[in-house]
Specification:
The chain has a two-stranded antiparallel ribbon with strand order 1-2. About 55% of the residues lie in helices and about 10% in strands. The longest helix is centred in the C-terminal third of the chain and has 18 residues. The protein has 2 domains: about 45 residues, no CATH class; about 35 residues. It has about 100 residues and is mainly alpha-helical.
């Protein structure tokens, strides 16, 4: 059995909820001592794990960019090289303070 604290989540203000117990780090357990934090975490977990939840707009944008890159026959290595060149160029053109 894990020695990490377990936090019991309960959503008082929400209807149709159930209690769950999840393992968390001690710092998280301390933060979840506040009922407002527990309620916010409960809403977040429910939103993230709801069946049929669509990907976030960010995840959708990343997936679209990946599809475009694949359609252009770009590999992960090609993309990494482009990003490295871009970052090197930016560092070279920055003004020093």
């Amino acid at each position: 059995m894990s020695s990490r604290p377990r936090v019991h989540l309960f959503h008082e203000g929400m209807t149709n909820t159930v209690d769950v117990t999840i393992p968390v780090k001690p710092e998280a357990a301390a933060a979840l001592g506040d009922p407002r934090n527990r309620e916010a975490v409960g809403r977040l977990v429910s939103r993230v794990l709801r069946p049929g939840a669509a990907p976030s707009p960010l995840a959708q944008a990343i997936a679209a960019m990946k599809a475009e890159a694949r359609a252009a026959d770009l590999t992960d290595g090609d993309i990494d090289a482009e990003l490295a060149a871009y970052n090197a160029e930016r560092r070279g053109t920055r003004k020093k303070r």
